[in-house]
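Batch manifest, entry 17 of 40.
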Amino acid sequence: MPKVVTDVTCPFCGTLCDDLEITVSDDNKKILSVKNACAIGAEKFNHTKEPGRVTHPRMRQPDGTFKEISYDEAIDFTARMLVKSRKTLMYGWASTSCQAMSIGHEIAEKVGGIVDNCATVCHGSSLIAIQDVGIPSCTLGEIKNRADRVIFWGCNPAHAHPRHMSRYSIFPRGFFTVKGHKGRKIYCVDCRHTDTARVADTFIQVQQGYDYELLNAFRTAARGGPLPDEIGGVPKEKVYEVVEELKTGRFGVIFFGMGLTHTLGRNHNIDIAISFTRDMNEFTKFNIIAMRGHWNVTGSGQVLSWQYGFPYAVDLSRLDKARYQTGETTSVDLLTRNEVEACFYIATDPGAHFPIAAMISSSKKPTVTIDPHINCTTEISDVHIPVAMVGVETGGCAYRMDNVPIETRKVVDPPEGLLTDEEVLTRILNRVNQLMEEA
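Output type: structure tokens
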């Protein structure tokens, strides 16, 4: 008889929805149906049925084709590459467990690697801003139960975090927000009209690249100061109106995305957004939360911060201490300057997201990728090591976008013989130790 696994956490986006119900076959090998997930989250679970899924490590041959090899051969190749390289880029981590990250960091300490995660190309500027000015924040549960003023700035959760609005920010009835959407005022600030803007009560279309100026105007309006007639295409009357509405709220929050982190101003946009949030706390309760993308990119920043004091781009190549400097120890900069000797990618696909110059540089170096599926990066790697899908075929800890740790669950068994990230990284660490003792 099929069985239903309840309270499953979805390993897709930073919302980490933990109310999924998965029906699996009686032999625990197949997922039959997925309930409560968004379309993208459901596909993440259904992807386990992908025909032709790779279940053995593969090594690139001189003619460009791949040949199946054993896990022992793949692990030995990886360990020798890491020991030989004087500076290895170890990038990714956003789609694996915190336990696996910890083991990977131990490897980096041994071989003098540079550990970087996906924040380097998305919310790294947010982390820089938080280091500069701090952050008044809260949990998504508090938003659900208390928030009556919600701003989406430079983000589009309708596409990127499909259940965010229904679970936490707009529609749910909370302890103090019993009317749901009717009891909240929703604002969307963006340079284009998005699907999120369609459900907002007020849409503010800001001219691209003028977010900093508009946020500065919001700060000025909050203090009752004078404004020019127009700020980034937004009339001053609209700014005054919105700020006064925010002041009358009981609990407000700003959710911001890459529309702020990747536009002109970058970390300074986040600086001033946080400063505006702090200003608003003189009138009402106000918070700000980054809309993190990959389901455990927040966890990577947490684990790195516990261990080294820095959330990403941690350079351990000097062995005696950790260094961190954006623009110097960040992945794209290292690759484009051709400063690393080998690349080790874990639970990520930079080949689909990095600039072409960076990936051309990566393709000329010894490269190993650990990922459950074939992707753009595995196809330019020397060795591809497939593993079980974390959050589907094995469990592990992850951090939600609001920095709340949540345990993911194993739902089905992985294909026979497939190892987990933790198992592969542990075996690589053991082999690295053996090679270093022999040297």
